[in-house]
């Protein structure tokens, strides 16, 4: 018996959110046609609401699309191109540290990069900042990297 009550409550919530979303989209459409101030006056809401929903309607990238991988920063194709460029730079300039790689990338692409994003890309490839010591030298030989990598 409680399960059916929960289902009815959930159905009401779902119905409410659908109506809420529709009303916000109507506010955004009105703002696209007549302007933000006019939409705020017509619907009796603060200006940020029509501005926000107008931007959502005009540019789907403002909020993104539901579902999918959330780790993309510049778009799927651009992220792959940038990662390829990072890979080529790392192969070419192995002695560079992270800030040097970032400045090189910014010169090549005219895009500002954060250190954390670059580190996340490198970490996803198995990159490590550990420095081999005398006891770890065998750990980083080409044969071991090929065998365990």
Mean pLDDT: 81
Helicity range of the residues?
Answer: 55-70%
Which regions have little confidence, pLDDT < 50, spanning 5+ residues? none
SSE sequence, one letter per element = HHHHHHH
β-strand amount: under 5%
Distance between the first and last residues' Cα: 55 Å
Helix/strand-derived category reads: mainly alpha
State Rg: 25 Å
Count of strand segments:
0
Give the number of helices.
Answer: 7
Major beta-sheet overview: none
> What is the general shape?
elongated
Would you kindly provide a written description of the structure presented here, covering whatever features stand out?
- The chain is mainly α.
- Helix content is 66%, strand content 0%.
- Helix 1 (2-34) packs across helix 2 (36-43), helix 1 packs across helix 3 (48-58) and helix 2 packs across helix 3.
Primary descriptors:
149 residues; mainly alpha; 7 helices; 66% helix; 0% strand; elongated
Short characterization:
By secondary structure, this protein is an all-alpha fold. Helices cover 66% and strands 0% of the residues. It has helices spanning 2-34, 36-43, 48-58, 76-92, 98-109, 115-124, 142-148.
Provide the fold topology.
Layout (H helix, E strand, L loop, with lengths): L1 H33 L1 H8 L4 H11 L17 H17 L5 H12 L5 H10 L17 H7 L1
Helix pairs in contact: 1-2, 1-3, 2-3
């Amino acid at each position: 018996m409680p399960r059916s009550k929960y289902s009815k409550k959930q159905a009401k919530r779902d119905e409410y959110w659908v109506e809420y979303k529709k009303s916000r989209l109507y506010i955004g459409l009105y703002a696209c046609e007549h302007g933000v101030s006019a939409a705020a006056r017509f619907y009796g809401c603060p200006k940020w609401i029509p501005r926000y929903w107008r931007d959502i309607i005009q540019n789907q990238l403002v909020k993104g699309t539901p579902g999918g991988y959330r780790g993309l920063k510049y778009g799927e194709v651009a992220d792959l191109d940038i990662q390829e460029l990072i890979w080529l730079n790392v192969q070419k300039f192995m002695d560079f540290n992270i800030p040097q790689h970032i400045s090189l990338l910014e010169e090549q692409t005219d895009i500002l990069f954060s250190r954390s994003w670059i580190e996340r890309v490198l970490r996803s490839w198995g990159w490590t900042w550990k420095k081999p010591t005398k006891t770890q030298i065998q750990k980083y030989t080409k044969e071991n990297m090929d065998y365990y990598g």
